[in-house]
Amino acid sequence: DAGITQSPRYKITETGRQVTLMCHQTWSHSYMFWYRQDLGHGLRLIYYSAAADITDKGEVPDGYVVSRSKTENFPLTLESATRSQTSVYFCASSPRDITYGYEQYFGPGTRLTVT
Amino acid sequence: DAKTTQPPSMDCAEGRAANLPCNHSTISGNEYVYWYRQIHSQGPQYIIHGLKNNETNEMASLIITEDRKSSTLILPHATLRDTAVYYCIVRVAARHSGGGADGLTFGKGTHLIIQP
User: Fold this and answer.
1) Mind listing the pLDDT tens digit for each residue in A74-114?
2) Peptide bond before A75: cis, by omega within 30 degrees of 0?
């Protein structure tokens, strides 16, 4: 099915482990984004990417690594998970180029628990 | 980016029009008004956006006042599935922000509850 998917949908990991969250979109959108959502903070941008091999930091990038070797995939890696990274993670993509605004389409989210 | 103010919650009867207000009195000329919603446990969903003219799509209508200091999102025939948190976001177009398509800033939004 076309759209934006995330995997896994639920993940429990231990402190210190590396974990990778996957995001895949079938629209060939140029822009992709990773957000986290926590109670009391709303959604906060972690990283974004304007195209394959182009990434940039958002508001809360510390502890996270991203890559984008293919347009359709934008994995997010927690190098050494901490309890403060327990959150719901949303991936998004945007069809617009930089001359337009922020019409973004979000995936279903990954609920990550770090114990 | 201009700050937005929305009521924390609203009720609406099923089948009636839901009118969600947003105040953005400090909006500048190159800033768009965006509306998103988030149904419980789902990712945010884009609804509509506009600059100065009223806009309509299959989901909703967006009415922006002439001075652009406020706007109203209208769901013409609300259903129970429209119960969600609705976010009004004001954001400059990427071409005016230095070229980067950085992310959206979601505030607390309005929790719209559709009553049967």
Assistant:
1) 999 999 999 999 999 999 998 765 445 568 899 999 999 99
2) no
Whether the CB-CB separation of B103 and A33 falls below 8 Å is answered with: yes
**Per-residue pLDDT tens over the stretch B9-25:** 999 999 999 999 999 99
Task: Please give the C-alpha separations between residue B76 and each of B18, B37, B43, B101, in angstroms, as whole numbers.
Answer: 6, 15, 23, 32
Mean pLDDT, residues A35-53 = 88
DSSP-derived pairing of the beta strands B31-38 and B84-92? antiparallel
Which one of A90, A99, A106 has the shortest CB-CB distance to B94?
A: A99
Q: What is the mean pLDDT of chain B?
A: 89
> Which one, of A106, A69, A71, lies nearest residue A89 by Cα?
A106
Q: Buried b / exposed e across A71-87, counting CB within 10 Å, b at 16+?
A: bbebbbebeebeeebbb
Distance from CA of B39 to the nearest CA of A (A): 11
Tokens of A19: 């974990």
The dihedrals phi and psi of A85, each to the nearest 5 degrees, come to -95, 5
Q: How confident is the model over B58-67, as a mean pLDDT?
A: 96
Q: What distance in Å separates the CA atoms of residue B59 and residue B84, rounded to the nearest whole number? A: 14
Q: Which two tokens stand for residue A5?
A: 């998917």
Contacts of B106 in chain A (CB under 8 A): 42-43
Minimal Cβ distance to B43: which of A45, A100, A106: A106
